[in-house]
């Protein structure tokens, strides 16, 4: 996976970033994936493919199952 520098910070992040808005509690939005095993598979698959940057902004929801289990 290619990396790029994040702004002027010198921090390198994967060129592709996985947003996590679609993971959480489906009561928030019906399209949200709430199954912990499925979320874990998605995140692990992305990581195994070289994605090392995940957008976990908490402005949409505050429940991200499985994220810690992938590390």
Automatic annotation (TrEMBL):
It comes from Macrolepiota fuliginosa MF-IS2. It comes from the Eukaryota. Keywords: Oxidoreductase. One of its GO terms (molecular function) is oxidoreductase activity. Pfam families: Aldo_ket_red. InterPro entries: AKR_Detox_Biosynth, NAD(P)_OxRdtase_dom_sf, NADP_OxRdtase_dom. This is Aldo/keto reductase. The keyword Electron transport does not apply. Residues 15-59 form the NADP-dependent oxidoreductase domain.
């Amino acid at each position: 996976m290619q990396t790029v520098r994040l702004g002027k910070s010198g921090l390198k992040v994967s060129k592709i970033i996985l947003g996590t808005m679609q993971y959480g509690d489906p009561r928030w939005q019906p399209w949200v994936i709430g199954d912990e095993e499925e979320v874990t598979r998605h995140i692990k698959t992305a990581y195994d493919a070289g994605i090392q940057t995940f957008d976990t902004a908490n402005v949409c929801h505050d429940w991200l199952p499985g994220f810690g289990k992938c590390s």
